[in-house]
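Lab notebook, bench 4. Still working through the backlog of constructs that have no structural model yet. Next entry is a single chain of 255 residues. Request: give me the structure tokens for it.
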Amino acid sequence: MSKNTNVLILEDDRHTANDLKHHLRGKDNMEYVECVPSVEEACQFLQVKPVDIVVLDLIMSSRDGYCFLETLDHLTLQQKPHVIVTSAIDNEHAIRRAFDMGAKYYMIKPYENEVMYRRILDVCFSGARQKGAAGGKGKTIDQRIMEIFLALGIPPHLKGYQYLRTAIKMVLLDSTIIYSITKKLYPSIAMEYSVTPTKVELAIRHTLDVTWQRNKFEHLDQVFGCDVYLKNTKPTNGEFIALVSDLLSFEQQQS
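Model written out:
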């Protein structure tokens, strides 16, 4: 992979910003990584240097991340960056608003720097070729997964949220892996997050349990556009992963 990823960190917490900056600068495929503490400085930076990814803190002491997203939409730039929003706020309204304003991904604080690095690579290198249709035209797979999870009320702060997202993307790349969920899928996810396969399985199950207890996936039919056989029973891990993967696979085929 060539050294061509340029990252701007818009974060007013100096410790958080520097910690992430030093971590990213240690990666071979990062060309430059810079930090700025304000929306104004970020906009000035973008007009001078091309940036692939902006890691955006949503809550700052002066103008907030929403102001940046709004301003970015009106800037005339040769290259408009993708934005990954970070925040301790995990309610659906805040996430959906950031998403609607153009964010490509939303990460709940605190996050691990290595996980952020992987999300940067996902957004930067996978986004261009992973498109959806059928309500997701022009959107990346990450965006469609977030839309579906939000619509179903899956809590984004739970670890199982990230594991589910990764599982769905893995199944999209290799549909046969869903038939070896305990022998291949869970171990593959565990390797990416440096945990055990058992922790992956339990975290996904807990996330689906919490969602079921909250709303019993009452919006399944609306999300999938048809009667879903799972709507009256709590889906297993494999059933849910397969269901979402099938929907996204269908959307890709229609694009």
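Notes after review: Residues 5-126 form a domain with the Rossmann fold fold (CATH 3.40.50.2300). Residues 197-215 form the longest helix (19 residues). Flag for follow-up if needed.
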